[in-house]
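TICKET: design request
STATUS: open
ATTACHED STRUCTURE:
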């Protein structure tokens, strides 16, 4: 990461565990912020709510993969978080797949004999469940993304956890133990969300150690995969077994939705590269999901988060 001090500080905090040492190795992804210096291979321009971005990509086959980013709008932290999720981590996922791993939209909790892996879209409760488990003395590999290889081994993705302004309701025991500045920061985010009528609803990135000891970075063998879904068709928490092929399709759909903004702005060369990466991810997940049982947990969409999260935690046994 290179560029202005604010951006560098943000990503230093996010990826501190993955910072490249002075061992002469080359990074898989390079991202810079500021003015463009070279003609890009592809240019993605867009924005969301109060911020705008211009992302200039290097070649799809280059090593390292490169991107140059220009940002406008406020709050700056919101812009950096969006670019991180939409573009920086899309590049990391491409590099990971080429190295034999899937950057999976999942949380992973340490359990006897291995890892409980919970897949789900944003808003399904992965972070809240992870926060509660960590606060209860459990270990976690990640609350939103993890790395998985074809043998079902799970590795920590070195990114800060995300806390949300409803934590007081979804994890009251953890809320009570948070440092006062952290609670104030969450309360401020709640005010922003209310005043903007949901237009801006930022999460609070925080080191896992603020809540508890996350334990070993792995690898842990997956012993159970859970697909969490908010569903209008159920009235109670419902569990069903899922075939490995269906789980692969689920995972690929989540990955595609995560890189939707990235894919929409690239040229034919980059689209071909994304198709190749999807093929690699399909093969990795097909093997990984064959190593442990897969279940689908459907949560009634009508349930508020303060009901859904404790019920999920009880069903999964994540706080024992």
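STATUS: resolved
RESOLUTION: sequence designed for all positions
ATTACHED SEQUENCE:
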């Amino acid at each position: 990461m290179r560029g202005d001090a604010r951006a560098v500080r943000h990503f230093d905090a996010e990826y501190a565990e993955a910072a490249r040492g002075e061992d002469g190795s080359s990074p898989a992804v390079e991202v810079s912020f500021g003015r463009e210096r070279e003609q890009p291979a592809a240019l993605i321009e867009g924005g969301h709510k109060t911020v705008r971005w211009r992302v200039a990509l290097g070649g799809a086959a280059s090593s390292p993969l490169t991107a140059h980013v220009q940002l406008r709008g406020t709050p700056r932290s919101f812009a950096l978080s969006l670019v991180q999720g939409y573009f920086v981590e899309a590049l990391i996922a491409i590099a990971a797949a080429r190295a034999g791993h899937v950057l999976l939209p999942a949380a992973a909790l340490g359990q006897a004999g291995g890892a409980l892996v919970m897949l789900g879209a944003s808003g399904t409760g992965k972070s809240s469940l992870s926060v509660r488990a960590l606060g209860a003395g459990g270990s976690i590999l990640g609350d939103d993304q993890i790395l998985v290889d074809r043998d079902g081994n799970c590795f920590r993705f070195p990114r800060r956890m995300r806390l949300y302004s409803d934590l007081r309701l979804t994890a009251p025991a953890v809320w009570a133990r948070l440092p006062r500045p952290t609670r104030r920061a969450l309360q401020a985010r709640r005010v922003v969300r209310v005043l903007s009528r949901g237009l801006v609803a930022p999460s609070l990135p925080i080191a896992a150690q603020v809540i508890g000891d996350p334990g070993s970075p792995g690898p842990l063998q997956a012993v159970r995969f859970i697909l969490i879904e908010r569903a209008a068709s159920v009235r109670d928490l419902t569990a069903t077994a899922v075939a490995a092929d269906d789980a692969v399709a689920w995972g690929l759909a989540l990955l595609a939705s995560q890189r939707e903004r990235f894919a929409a702005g690239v040229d034919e060369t980059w689209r071909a590269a994304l198709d190749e990466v999807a093929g690699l991810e399909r093969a990795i997940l097909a093997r990984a999901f064959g190593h442990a049982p897969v279940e689908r947990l459907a949560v009634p969409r009508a349930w508020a988060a303060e009901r859904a999260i404790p019920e999920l935690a009880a069903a999964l046994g994540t706080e024992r």
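CLOSING REMARK: The radius of gyration is 19 Å. The first helix runs from residue 5 to 14.
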